[in-house]
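Quick start: read one record
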Amino acid sequence: MYLSERLERVLTAIGELSYKGLLVDVGCDHGYICIEAVRRGLVDRALACDINPGPLDRARINIEAAGLSDRIETLLGDGLCPVDRERVKECRDQGGVTVLMAGMGGQLIRDMLKEGADLLTDVSGLVLSPQSEPELVRSFIMEQGFVIRQEHYVLDGGKYYVIMEAARPDTAEEQEPYSTEELLFGRPGLESRDTVLRAQLTELKRVTEEALSKAGQGTSEKAKERRRELTELLTYIDKALDRYKEGEYGKDHA
């Protein structure tokens, strides 16, 4: 089964967390991640969840074709709502539970996690790939007691993606608070001076500078607020890019 680089990185993140008990894939689409995660031995069992019957039907067909209907179950519903809480508790003690949410906006991911907060208490790890507003996701999961272990930065099909790995801390020691630029762009990538993240930051700076130039000299409150937002964003982009001056080479995560 061919998977894009982005989906391969998602599987890498699932494997690195090493919680083999159960994978809960919210917004499973065709079910490919669940199929490959089970097939490759990354997890023992999986739940393929989607709010839309069409994609879920396609996922069910693909799961049956892969001969994995006894290990992958499809669930129709919104977010984490259709997931049985008692089953999650059982799997937590039998290898751990990973929740996957990818291909959605950051606000939607945060809201679904918030609605399923009662289930999160028994979740071991998270693999999250927001397509926008990743700072909302980072902030929320850290408030819920998770630590971001790693982030994978991917340029796939001309688009930039981030894939977060989060888990419960090994000790009760508090995590050092994130700076604003770390919330916006990711501490792991800035610390390792990831080359894909640097390219994304450079492009974002160019686009933001163009937008600021086009904002003109309008005197309305809306125009002033827009210029203020763009100027503030540029400040944080520059702070993030300054991290790369600490060393000549960055790291491109494999």
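Residues 46 and 205 are 40 Å apart (CA to CA).
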